[in-house]
Design a protein that fits this description.
This protein has three domains: about 5-360, ABC transporter involved in vitamin B12 uptake, BtuC, CATH 1.10.3470; about 370-475 and about 615-630, 3-Layer(aba) Sandwich (Rossmann fold), CATH 3.40.50.2300; about 480-610 and about 645-655, 3-Layer(aba) Sandwich (Rossmann fold). The protein is globular and about 80 Å long. It contains 24 helices and 16 strands. The strands form four sheets. It has a six-stranded parallel beta sheet with strand order 6-5-7-8-9-15, with helices on both faces. Strands 11-10-12-13-14-16 form a six-stranded mixed beta sheet, sandwiched between helices. The protein has a two-stranded antiparallel sheet with strand order 1-4. With about 650 residues, the chain is an alpha/beta fold. The relative contact order is 0.10. Strand 5, helix 15 (about 385-400) and strand 6 (about 405) form a beta-alpha-beta unit. GO terms for molecular function: transmembrane transporter activity.
Amino acid sequence: MSERQKQMIQKLAALAGLICLFIAFTLTNEYFFTVNNLMTIGLQTSTIAFIGIGVTCVILTGGIDLSIGSVVALSGVAAGMAVKAGVPVPLGMLIGIATGALCGAFNGIFVTKLRLPPFIATLGMMMIARGIALYVTNAAPVSGMPESFSYLGNGALFRIVESHPVTGMPLVKFPGIPYPVILMILLAILFTFALTKLRVGRYLYAIGSNEEAARLSGIDTDKVKIIAYTASGMLAGLAGVVLASRLVTAQPNGGVMYELDAIASAVVGGTSLMGGVGTIPGTLIGAFIMGVLRNGLNMNGVSFFVQQIIIGSVIIMTVAFDQLRQHQSKKPTKTAKKKPYKENQNMKKLATFAMIGLTTAMFAAPYAMASEIAVIVKTSNSNFWQNVRGGAEDAEKELGSYKITFQGPEAETAIAEQVNMVDNAINRGVAGIVLAPSDPDALVPSVKKAWENGIPVILIDSNLNNADKYYQSFLATDNHTAGALAANQLIDKLDGKKGKVAMMSFTPGAGSAIARDGGFQETIEAAGYEVVGPFYSQADMVTALNQTIDVLASNQDLVGIFGSNEPTAVGMGRALKQQGFAGKIKAVGFDGNQDLQSFVKDNTLDGIVVQSSYAMGYEGVMSVDKLLKGVKLEKFIDTGVVFVTAENIDTKEATSVLY
């Protein structure tokens, strides 16, 4: 069997897997194979496709690019900052793409001129690009861009929207073809042409097959490699710009783990990690396999953690097949008896990809979508949000007429994942959405889309900017007042003792963090204290622990400290205990899980401000039910807080909000 035939079978195997996924999800969810959802799949997959096409060029040479995710973030930040500085939007976006290309060119130079292994060179660039993105933004999202900045990521060709003749509400007749999907198709055609018809494409395959032979035949291998890495960086830059446009905000923490999605899409599509084998159509199929898997599992309410298991299994099986193929290709073919064995292996590939689709369907539970209320939070990795889930599920039991689905990304910084979850909920025709937005700007287009589709949205915990028209009610703690309460309680505990007070915060740019930190800082500074920080833990306990240890070591005159959310306050409390400062420095935390309760009881913390996360989940679902019954709600409903100390921790008031 020729190499061309082998590649064709590899692509057919991937295509068979993609078809099986479509069949499986169509059978388990009536809203999966609809125009709206197909356009959403294309939009969500386009980012993976951009970076997948780029990394395919690198892998063909036998290299690897681990810097893609960080370059995506840096490019988006560069574009956002340029536009905010007054640069015209198209030029600002070109600056973002050029930033990505520059990072890629440096990768190529490190690999070819410094002779660094691609793994090390791109790992270093991954850290450099991420560090620059965080440094120039102070880890805060770049927001406040003009509306025209969102056209590339949220616009669509042939979109048709009409007004309802009675209510005046918009009715989406046809969602249109998203601009990123059109870009994806054009780039796939362009790079396919380059790899198959142009000299540089043949050189990429030659280098990956045998670099020394390619060099001896007169190919400038260093130049070709630099071109490959530059192309990868450029497409990562494009992905960053499109993502920033779609979210209408540039996230310096965005793009985490995107490099793995890119590599996986290439390998699933038949690109060999050994180099010299692969095609752009194959990578496109691989990208759609990844995109359809995520979309279909989200549509069926499958846990994010189960999604990781399934996608990881797909990657392992695919790479295992690639290694088997490499092993078989190195064996000398002595007789024709070998052929049936190889053909049998290829049939096994087809069968296995089919099984991927069918196995995935086993995890999908079809719901009566019209009676589903989707509860989408910032992350499911937190006791606080699990307590929200408990409230929502109790409301579900009480009402008896709705099915609650609970979803949240792996981390609060995975904003694009949360956007996808909201879009998928809209596509499956849910009755209503209870949403805790991770970013005040990035979720606005999705909430607007829900409004256009007549789906009520109740916000909890954090608000959105300039989106009052699109959501029906906001249930939350008055975070500014709660932050001021924490400051006043800390001032009371300090009893006139002056010095520095440290602020340990969580996610920069999050609405709740901005209001909570603002209320605390205004009040504590008005009382004459010098504020150190804020230090952002990204809602990660270990990061908060390390940051607090550093703050304690470098500020000997520290008299007070404030941790403004659950994982941050827990990490802060552990640092105080480990470093011997428990009871010596006055400390106040926020939220009320078991760890924080223990810190209050042993006087590591002097108190915790506890909001009723349970009430947010319970009242959020109840509010959707009221809206569907025609009841008008207040635009803002304060769910309140309780300041819990060692003296009142066992009272009914405290136990009603602790979890």
